[in-house]
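Re: weekly structure request thread

Next one in the queue (223 aa):
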Amino acid sequence: MKKKVSIIIAIVLIILVIFLFFIKNNYNFFKFGNNMSNKSADEIKNYILNIDSFSAEASVTITSNKTTNTYTFNQKIKGNKCVQELLEPENIAGLKILYDGVNIKIENTKIGISKLYENYNCITSNSLWINTFINDYKNETNEKTMYEENNKIILEVKVKNENIYNANKKLYIDKLTGKPVKMEVQDITQNLKVYILYNKVEINTLQEENIIAFKLNGENEVI
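Done, posted below.
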């Protein structure tokens, strides 16, 4: 009987040790990742504006004067390095846009297309990437506001010196998770031009080896 009790106590102690080990190693995750509801709107805003990396699958609807088209992209961003791969529609899937902070490369290995643009400054106006929104919001010359609506924190920025099609941008953030839910880009007359719905969002999890860039000679390298 004593032997059986000793075995039970030993099993309980092992379970307790495993449980404590799990809590210790996941404390930061629970403290920050799962308790974003304890953060203020300002804290969540600062968290988003200072993210180190961002990855997501995004459904993007782009409206021009005559047509509306929807695409699905895979996006990876770390610092000023960006990779965006088109997943849908199927007939042009595989198209990639790679930006290493200075140069941009557009390629589709399925159909053998590859084009390099050196010293490509216009990338800063790419409204499909969240780091463009962050830079716009941080720009002191732009008019920005923050407000809450339906358990979402909304960051809105009116971009000065921008073309008329990207004049107003809104980023919707879930208060419970601290993750972006969607982004809207409006023209100067407040017509919706770009609508981005974020899925499978990960923040600050990308390592340098997750971002593929390129050399000027066309050989891929890991940054």
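The first helix runs from residue 2 to 25. Helices lie at 2-25, 27-33, 41-49, 130-138.
Next request, please.
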